[in-house]
Specification:
By secondary structure, the chain is mainly β. The chain is 6% helix and 39% strand. It starts with a helix and ends in a 6-residue tail after the last strand.
Length: 124
């Protein structure tokens, strides 16, 4: 596992949405992958992130306090990419969207606690 502190810093500010998560930037919400409840700024969540292109982390799923996953075996299968399970606080920092427009209600990850790291599966 990489240095936990370094990984936490690397994940700080990752946008809560994108690859595997639908977000509503106009209201600043994401949904729990199990119960679909709205998660908003200041909510403490469990998130699964996957490293894309060996340098960019993206969110794959979010879970509310009641449905937080305990390990990576349930939320997503082993893959050819590094994955990490974290507890984080959703922060209302805003972010630039894929077209370069600023979305003031977009959420990012803060106060990150690493729960589990799963390295990329070796492919033969």
């Amino acid at each position: 596992m990489p240095d936990e502190r370094q990984l936490s810093q690397e994940l700080m500010g990752v946008v809560a949405g994108g690859f595997g998560v639908a977000t509503d930037e106009t209201t600043g919400t994401v949904r729990c992958a199990r119960c679909a409840s709205a998660l908003t700024a200041a909510d403490r969540v469990v998130a699964v992130l996957r490293e894309h292109d060996s340098e960019q982390w993206g969110t794959e799923s979010f879970y509310c306090h009641d449905h937080g996953s305990e390990d990576l075996s349930g939320p997503i299968p082993d893959s050819g990419a590094n994955q990490v399970l974290v507890k984080a606080t959703l922060e209302p920092t805003g972010a630039f969207g894929p077209r370069g427009t600023f979305q003031p209600e977009a959420l990012t990850l803060g106060a990150i606690e690493i729960l589990e790291f799963s390295p990329a599966a070796d492919e033969e």
